[in-house]
Amino acid sequence: MVSGFENYEQELLDLDREILHYAALCGVDINDHAAIEACIHQPHENWAADKARETLRGLLILRVKVEEEMLTLGQKPPELGGW
After folding, report:
1. How far is CA 19 from the centre of its chain?
2. Exposure check for the chain: N or C terminus, fewer CB within 10 A?
3. What is the DSSP letter of 77?
4. How far apart, in Å, do the first and last CA atoms of the chain sit?
């Protein structure tokens, strides 16, 4: 499977920026994996918080897919925010 990403470094930079933004909106530290898990699996009471949670979840899934693609091409993806 090829996603069409040609510049993985820039794509991950952009994704990381968005992930960090939505993690901040959700009030979670991106390095706290338990907090991230709780955030993305627990619906929130108001629509705006729930929308931010869903967006964060989608961005994290997309990042994993880009990482998987990089690995299949023999490239080592950096840690989230590790550029």
Report:
1. 5
2. N
3. P
4. 25
On whether the CB atoms of residues 67 and 5 are closer than 8 A, the answer is no
Residue 53, amino acid = R
CB 78 within 8 A of CB 66: no
Q: Indicate if the pLDDT at residue 83 is higher than 90.
A: no
Q: What is the pLDDT of residue 3?
A: 53
Burial 61-81 (b: 16+ CB within 10 A, else e): eebeebbebbeeeeeebeebe
Q: How far is CA 20 from CA 31, 71, 81, in A?
A: 10, 23, 8
- Categorize the per-residue pLDDT at 82 as very low, low, confident or very high, splitting at 50, 70 and 90: low
Distance between CA 8 and CA 76 in Å, rounded?
A: 10
